[in-house]
Amino acid sequence: MSDVRTIPSIAILGTGSMGSAILSGLLQPGVEVTGGIRVTNRTRAKAAELAKLPGVTSIAVEDDPDANRNAVAGARVVLVAVKPAIVPELLREIADALEPDTIVISVAAGVTVATFEALLPDTIAVLRSMPNTPSVVGRGVTGLSAGTRSSDDDLAVGRAVFETVGTVIEVPEPQLDALSTISGSGPAYVFLLIEELTKTAISKGFTPEQAAILVNGTFRGAAELLAQSDRSPEELRIQVTSPKGTTERAVAVLQNANLKRTFDEATDAALARAKELAAGS
Prior knowledge:
CATH architecture of the largest domain: 3-Layer(aba) Sandwich
Domain Pyrroline-5-carboxylate reductase catalytic N-terminal: 10-110
EC number: 1.5.1.2
CATH topology of the largest domain: Rossmann fold
Keywords: Amino-acid biosynthesis, Cytoplasm, NADP, Oxidoreductase, Proline biosynthesis
Shape: elongated
CATH superfamily of the largest domain: NAD(P)-binding Rossmann-like Domain
Family: Belongs to the pyrroline-5-carboxylate reductase family.
Distance between the termini: 50 Å
Number of strands: 8
Order of helices and strands: EHEHEHEHEHEEHEHHHHHH
Oligomer: single chain
Strand content: 15-25%
């Protein structure tokens, strides 16, 4: 039985951090893209850099005003990874260059399936995705939603694309903005916790280098322990928290701070902003 994941021909429009992360996933061993990979980028320098990658055709808009149209011609999958504000303009540009059975996947935060479907021909299937930044190291979590014209087979293709950079969870589109407040923004919450605990370590007399080793290593080790364990986070916390011990005293302070309420308020604020972005404000 082959372990090779096969992806149909794909065009990636926009190779910023997320577009580049997905491109890296497609180039991993065990992934075969039939029909090739075409990518577009605004600048000649970035396009030349990407053109060095095996199996990648890279086109700069700076050199070719029709770069995006040329990239999508004949592609089975088109990944739209440009900034949300320029998505409508890009869709109008490529609409009549797409093959009738193309799957267009949005990676643009806040841009709805309805926007894509309104600007693309009826024969085009649309999926909306919300990957997160750990995709850059193959540890991403991507939310994936179907459009009104997409089939189960289209979803399977989209899942295969994002599984090259991590884990995929399929949700209805109305839930995707809520998902973005958890997994999409979540790395920032973790980095903030690491940042603040590092400051605390330094205030207790450790050098910044020592604090980084202590805190970064602890977060990485705890995450890996959770990944390899069959126990829940609560069970693992209780295992570390000896009765009447030092950790119990510290955890009590954190629990009294009502972290649940804080995370509720934080994610509600993120969700409100996602709705504002979707409304164009």
